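Dear H.,

Thanks for agreeing to be a second pair of eyes. The structure we're designing against is below in token form, covering all 393 positions.
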């Protein structure tokens, strides 16, 4: 099979054959042929959005400010006040950088796009059954699912060719559908979604504490120095403290404000996207409760911060499986003539990549059809009767 795989051709015909990039597709990894606008580093281990200049600015700002603080304030404070100041500052800095890099470099919860046969299957399944000859009626582009008694509309993504699971949205910057999409954050150079939201939240909280800590220490440094000298002389003695003070003072308001806003979202199990769109706001006087809320502040916080970390669905470091080989697998498992050939009857429910992990479970397995790329953890049903109701609208 491997011998008959198509090969990647060298773009420069003048290069000697041994220098050409003749690699069988089997030796390529999924990240090398990834259709979205993401950038990959370290052989696909790191995934980021295409534009990460603002992320570089975030890193420089944090490292620069903390570096100035350690170089010019910490020696004085550790001698005059306590040695705990540089230790606490160092630990906070490490935690901030750890959560920042984890948010920036990880898969936020990208949903793989449908393969050509899957997209064709969806189109076929959704096409009106009683179509008059010569009359084209576009298939329905919405579906309803029921989550805890709440009807949620699943929208069809024309780019990814899938029905987006509840809470998912297509990021225009990264060109991917992301599970439990919160927002695209240029400051961390990545989407914030189901797989990295907790690290993003911890980053905001720890950065707020770090800013307040540095601000307090710098003020203490200037006050103590002013007692020995005049205030102006103290500023002349340590001008970098004044600079660190200005940076921290202006940063702390925005960072702490954002941390406060996300604390409200975490305690309500909401996403920024849902909050802005008012997804769960009462409509026309009718009650419209968030079905994902645990019902208590503590339950929601535990769910978002301490819930299980779901595996990445894009399997970016796995080898690329040639289309022909996928079709072989599909044919064996589905007993159809070719992967593009769609069974006429009976119309099985349309393929959905994966319904939100927080809402539905094994009852929904049949809607997957012959997909093999969905991880087993993607279906959980929190609805009372475990019922998935799907109907085209
Ligand atoms: Zn999409
Ligand atoms: Zn994005």
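And this is the sequence the design step returned. I haven't edited it by hand at all.
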């Amino acid at each position: 099979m491997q011998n008959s795989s198509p090969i990647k051709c060298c773009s420069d015909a003048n290069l000697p054959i041994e220098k050409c990039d003749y690699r069988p597709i089997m030796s390529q990894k999924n990240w090398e042929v990834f259709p979205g606008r993401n950038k990959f580093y370290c052989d696909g281990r790191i995934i980021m959005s295409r534009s990460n200049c603002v992320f570089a600015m975030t890193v420089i700002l944090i490292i620069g400010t903390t570096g100035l603080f350690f170089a010019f304030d910490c020696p004085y404070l550790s001698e005059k006040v306590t040695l705990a100041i540089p230790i606490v500052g160092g630990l906070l800095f490490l935690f901030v950088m750890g959560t920042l890099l984890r948010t920036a470099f990880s898969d936020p919860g990208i949903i793989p796009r449908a393969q050509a046969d899957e997209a064709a299957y969806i189109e076929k399944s959704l096409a009106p059954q009683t179509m008059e000859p010569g009359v084209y009626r576009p298939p329905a582009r919405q579906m309803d699912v029921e989550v805890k008694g709440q009807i949620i509309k699943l929208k069809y993504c024309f780019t990814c060719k899938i029905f987006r699971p509840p809470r998912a949205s297509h990021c225009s910057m990264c060109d991917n559908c992301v599970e439990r999409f919160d927002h695209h954050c240029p400051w961390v150079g990545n989407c914030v979604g189901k797989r990295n939201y907790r690290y993003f939240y911890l980053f905001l909280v720890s950065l707020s504490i770090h800013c307040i800590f540095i601000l307090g220490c710098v003020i203490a440094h200037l006050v103590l120095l002013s007692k020995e000298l005049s205030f102006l002389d103290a500023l002349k003695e340590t001008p970098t403290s004044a600079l660190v003070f200005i940076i921290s003072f202006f940063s702390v308001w925005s960072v702490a404000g954002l941390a406060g806003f996300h604390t409200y979202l975490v305690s309500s199990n909401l996403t920024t996207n849902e909050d802005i769109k008012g997804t769960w706001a009462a409509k026309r006087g009718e009650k419209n409760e968030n079905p994902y809320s645990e019902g208590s502040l503590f339950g929601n916080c535990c769910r978002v911060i301490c819930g299980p970390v779901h595996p990445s669905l894009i399997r970016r470091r796995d080898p690329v499986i040639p289309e022909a080989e996928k079709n072989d697998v599909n044919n064996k498992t589905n007993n159809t003539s070719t992967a593009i050939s769609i069974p006429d009857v009976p119309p099985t429910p349309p393929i959905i990549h994966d319904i939100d992990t927080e809402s539905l479970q094994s009852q929904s397995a049949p809607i997957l059809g012959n997909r093999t790329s969905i991880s087993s953890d993607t279906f959980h049903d929190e609805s009372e009767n475990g019922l998935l109701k799907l109907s085209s609208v």
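Two observations from my side: Residues 157, 159-160, 170, 177 surround zinc ion (ligand 1) (CB under 6 Å). The CA atoms of residues 234 and 337 lie 83 Å apart.

Warmly,
E.
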